[in-house]
Amino acid sequence: MLALPLVQWLIFWLGINLDFIKLAFLDVRTDAFTFSNFVTFWDELTSPYGSIKIALINTLKYFATTMLIINPLSLVIAYFIYKKIRGYKIFRIVFYLPAIISSVVMVESFRQIIRPEGIVDAFLHLFGGAIPPVGWLGSPDYATSAILFYTVWTGFGVNMLLFMGAMVRVPTEILEASKLDGCSALREFFVMIIPMIVPTIATLVVVSCTNVISTTGPILLFTNGDYNTATISFWIFEKIYGGGVSGGLSSNYNIVSCTGLCFTLVSLPIILLVRYLMDKVPAVEY
Length: 286
Prior knowledge:
Layout: H1 3-24, H2 36-46, H3 51-82, H4 88-100, H5 103-114, H6 119-125, H7 143-153, H8 157-168, H9 172-180, H10 185-196, H11 198-210, H12 219-222, H13 232-241, H14 253-280
């Protein structure tokens, strides 16, 4: 029974990854052993206008937004819905709705909201402001920030459900006893709820760290990587598929393999360290 999945793992995971490691050390034209791919990677990473450097900075922005904004807000929203505030069923649907609706529809709706002469522009006119004529998505100074705001707007659904599932498992007797002792809702959240769902929070943190290099937003739908909005994931997609929209495979497997190998070597110790630290956080047994 284990033979088939084992063979599949050997061919489609181990074999492919070993092949990509080999490509990182091969010349794209002659297939000769070389370190030129690593030189190209380093030049792109250290150049002020290097594509890899810009993509890495944008990727870290998305990662920081996920860790510092989306995850904490998802936790707070999940707590309020868990406490069954008035209208909590409607809020639960509203916050999860972006995960159900097609991303194409959501992106186009957001694009219309923030376009010049759109709803946001009309609101800013009331205070003497205005959206730039090219729009926020058409300017390198604002495009990435606009997409980051979109990811926050649509990023609560899955994490919110995970946190709610963990909170539902908390014994109600413990919360009722704390309420009899005069525990406020704020103290209950920080002293009772969070310590009891630490395993879920730790798992989410570790998973987010493992995906740090692949963290991205809907770049293709918004800008196709223009206006300095590319992330590492989109940069890899663009290198392989020759721009995405035009289609057609390109011959950039070597530099892409080199980039993936370098980032893996850097991120792996960080992931292991984060997992070690998360394991040190005491979990409450109940």
